Fold this protein.
Amino acid sequence: MSIAAPSTDVAPWWRRGVVYQVYIRSFADGSGDGTGDIAGLRSRLNYLAALGVDAIWITPWYPSPLHDGGYDVADYRDICARFGTLAEAESLIDEAHELGIKVLIDLVPNHTSVEHRWFQAALSAEPGSAERDRYIFRRGKGPDGSEPPSNWRSVFGGPAWSRVDDGDWYLHLFDVTQPDLNWENSEVTEEFLDIFAFWLDRGVDGMRVDVAHGLVKDLTFPDIVKSAEVLTSEQLANHPHWDRDGVHDIIRSWRSLLDRYDDRMMVAEAWVHPERLPLYLRPDEYHQSFNFDLLDTDWDASQFTATIESSAGAAADVGATTTWVLSNHDVMRHATRYGLPTATPWRRWLLDGPHDILDALLGARRARAAILLTLSLPGAAYLYQGEELGLPEVWDLPEDVLDDPTWVLSEHKVKGRDGCRVPIPWSSSGPSFGFGSAKPWLPQPAGFGAISVEAQDDDPSSMLNLYRTALALRKKWFTEDEDLEMFDVGSDVVAFTRGSGARCLLNMGDTPVCIDDVEGTVLLSSVRVETSIEGHLELPANAAVWLAPIRTDS
Ligand code: NOJ
């Protein structure tokens, strides 16, 4: 298969950019209170510049009770005291720009925190009041209104409705502390345009928009048919609270605001059916959307090839580029995912195991191979902090430190996302491995010292140096255009050529593959590969290689 996407001479940076996700609570703690912050991030900007990323995406940094790690925002125009101040945020944006790093922030428009002044005003006001109309308050069902208005469930577990003292119910598709806003209310739409402008005026280069497929709800609140585990296209197009057509009017209003500024972008976190995703990428809507398909694909060459072709093809069809994501703050780290037997349901495995089926070395080896794959594909790549160190999921955190609301709301049936959010180890020894001077908000395992930045810095074979080298080579070989030509060298291998003539071959099988008549030279490989002067290349199991079309010293 060959995909030749529209290619302009000067493509906007984000089409082929590498964005590094900073989960701010866990990145670096400058203030010494055990929680990561802006001071810590500023002190590590040089590290990120040397790593070679184009941009950072900072997870929510606003005032928040942190019931959902900051995705419960109490004030969208300020910075959480634990993370720093607005002045520090402005300095960070300037310093990142001086280093050539763009800054994306996280906007959370589907819901606020219960501590937001609007929700506090709604609680003090009467049922039916203008204050309540900014959210979704309703009377309950049943003779005394004691049943929720619908059977909708929270994503984190339990009902999506909670009741206040005067008998009204409010909708929260996530935690009880995250009331959903009413996007039919013009005060809400105007408020968010103003919030966008507030941050664009402070120089941010764009926004990652949380729950981009949410926002608009069917305010007749039909019950959801429980049996519909696999939704048909028809049901998808008319789901009562996800991916409703009305959301596109909202997106267009944001886009026309962004277009008044130079070179800004927004990326959608939209969990929608693949056939509906292009709607979000129309020319007057999002610039880009996360594509989580590869993250959900088993370690299998034919499945990977199919996902690559469908993702790249669907984006190219609407003139966009896709994004490649292996990990983020909501899923098990891929160095661990890839160490589990194929098709292990990892969310369940976190809780129930059996934990002895994990092959951590295999996971790390595959993670090295996977990054060579994603960094050589056309489109943007989103990296999650710590993956460049090969950090594993910390699956054995003690239950009493678990912080993710999922743990409680699922009644301890889903362990949650804390294991991928453990603070970053910067040094090989010392308290919190250089994260900060205080006890970190989540405990780090003893093994983190051996895979810290310090431990890997000077080791040419480390994961960190693989990322550094790959990011530097990517700029030369894989970002000139968006062409992709898949070719066949056996059922275990994903193989393609890019417009520059450089190629990536990933052997996903458990035995080496011998490839004849290899033209070109090895640019980089995830493990040592052997080539012969006759032009044979032996690609080891679970390994990837980049080949340049001609002999080169680079
Ligand atoms: C998606 C975010 O990535 C996740 O961390 C958060 O819990 C939900 N949206 C709700 O805001």
In short: The first helix runs from residue 38 to 43. Residues 227-234 have pLDDT under 50 and may be disordered. The pocket of 1-deoxynojirimycin is lined by residues 68, 71, 108, 174, 210-211, 269, 329-330 (CB under 6 Å).
